[in-house]
Amino acid sequence: PFEIAFVQQDDVDALFIFDRCVDLSFCIDMVFNFITPYWDPHANAMVEELPLIIKQYLTIFRILRILRVIKLVRVFRASRIFSRWQAQLNIPMAIFKLAGHLATILLLAHWLGCLWGGVVHFEYHTDAQGNKLSWMSVYGIDNKGMQTQYVTSLYWAVVTILTIGYGDIPVVTLEEKGIAIVCMIAGCGTYSFGTALMILLRLLNDTTKRRMRFLM
């Protein structure tokens, strides 16, 4: 989403090379997922013949599994890794849940910031002088670098998610108002989830203390 929203040219720089390497790694991973042997419960053995593997992976169920390797969707698989870390490092559940909630907020802020910054490329409104009209042009950063545009978009997303809403960044067009509504709903949902999580953790902590006193 960052590249779609803020990178407007294909200059071969460090960011471009890094992004292409990430794309290549996901393509390689997709190929390996497609040719991985599978377990046949009827034969009680691993099927390693390539034609049979391809036939198996061309079924609807396997096609859906292949779609899971799209890199945007694979981000959610990181929760499995974090769960293993929590079990291996014996991290308290309360700290683990709070860290996970914070990571969710940061990821959501990044996505919504990219959405907010990318909407200007799909708007065709103009002012009285014929200049393109968007929140970036009104705020005066439409000709700034992508770092300035991204940080400003991320700033707007964070204050919106956290329901602060300073109002210093204007919402100009109808499209931007629609995206702002979506971001505010996402922010309220995230805040409500965090509040419910804190209440649940407090209840679990109280229950654990009662059990410890009962056992003693």
From TrEMBL:
The keyword Transmembrane helix applies. It is found in: Membrane. The chain crosses the membrane at residues 154-173, 179-204. Residues 3-189 form the Ion transport domain. Keywords: Membrane, Transmembrane, Transmembrane helix. One of its GO terms (molecular function) is voltage-gated potassium channel activity. PANTHER family: CHROMOSOME UNDETERMINED SCAFFOLD_10, WHOLE GENOME SHOTGUN SEQUENCE (PTHR47823:SF9), ION_TRANS DOMAIN-CONTAINING PROTEIN (PTHR47823). This is Ion transport domain-containing protein. It comes from Aphanomyces astaci (Crayfish plague agent).
